[in-house]
Fold this sequence. Notes:
GO terms for molecular function: NADH dehydrogenase activity. By secondary structure, this protein is of the alpha/beta class.
Amino acid sequence: MSRPRIVIVGAGFAGYRAARTLSRAARGRADVTLLNPTDYFLYLPLLPQVAAGILEARRVTVSLSGTLRDVRLVLGEAGHVDLDARTVHYTDPEGGTGTLAYDRLVLAAGSVNKLLPIPGVAEHAHGFRGLPEALYLRDHVTRQIELAASGDDPATCAARCTFVVVGAGYTGTEVAAQGQLLTDALVRKHPPRRGVRPRWLLLDLAGRVLPELDRRLSDTADRVLRGRGVEVRTGTSVKEATRDGVLLTDGEFVDTRTLVWCVGVRPDPLAESLGLPMERGRLLVEPTLRVPGRPEVFACGDAAAVPDLDEPGQYTPMTAQHAWRQGKVAGQNVAASLTGGELRSYRHKDLGFVVDLGGVQAAANPLGVPLSGPLAGAVTRGYHLAAMPGNRVRVAADWLLDAVLPRQAVQLGLVRSWSVPLDTASPELVRMPEAPAGSQPGDEPAAKAPGGEPARDRPRTAPAAHPAPGPVKRPDIPSEGDQ
Length: 483
């Protein structure tokens, strides 16, 4: 008799934890397959430190095959799930297609950059959800400072030294905080024209930074940012983006070459394609993370609307902390469903939050105790080391080296602007150009779009024709809480 087949879609916080749980709970009793576009789990909270040059890119990645024993890794993007046939259809990194049959399915596809119908944003802004975007931002910021140092026109130099971050949540706040420290270090090596210094703007329609956190933590972050020179503009956002700058909602036009989009995330469109009941783009599930009417399907993480048992009528927010814990419950319940065991309901106790503000500064509230300054910085880094499923020693070593050595101010040139569009369903992958004319058989093939056509290398003035993995449809009406 063949063993049950378990397929997990996505290896973010929820998918990775579900796979790790099942690798132990179902060992020898089921065949576990993990479908993911990359061969690593990305520890997203440390991504701003990659963009700032503190950590090398591989430090925030954890090998899937190296840490998930008895789990089969399949590289590819899920394109269609046939719930009746119990199959998942996917496209591999070289454009080939495949099918995975399952007896149990765990949907943990995660989330993508949230898009708003603001003119020019999709063409001129970049998100911050994947490793390619972080590497691009580090190169781009370095390049702007270097070009400003060698430029002759004061206005152009000032524009190159101006960086706009939209969204003052966790990601945007950390990007602005780390970015200001990075550019301050860069100008010491590449001083721009007299009177020009790096200028960072952090915009948000909310009345304060980190609006989802306790007021004391928000005030701490605001004080650190302003003290460092970051211009915090609350109640303000972008009305229009152009090649030369951004028009703000208060009427001011800011000359800049850098627009970082951190207004939040929305569920991966794969969830909506299933045709099942949804809640604001998220798949409705029972407290046990099982999909109603589909006992063989479970969903967790950002793709799932999980009832909050402590606040009836509400759903758990889309955070890494929830995704990590939901992944464990999903794995346990899938294993229990194979043997007729009792399924657990997901209930979460808030353990607090940490926000790294760069240097020795941070804002944290472990177990509800508000902290700031170097003590919060130590707690924050200790938390990340404890939470990471691997690479702890390497991360700690990079932190130590950054504390005693100057940062390397060089461009790697690995990621180009057009290869990390904001409007993408897979921020963890770079956009690939079409294979050059005259290429020989056996050369690296061009990426293919969902319809099978080869991807095109198009200028940013034509963003509608995105190659694989394809664009995310922009909602006609922004969801509640949009910036």
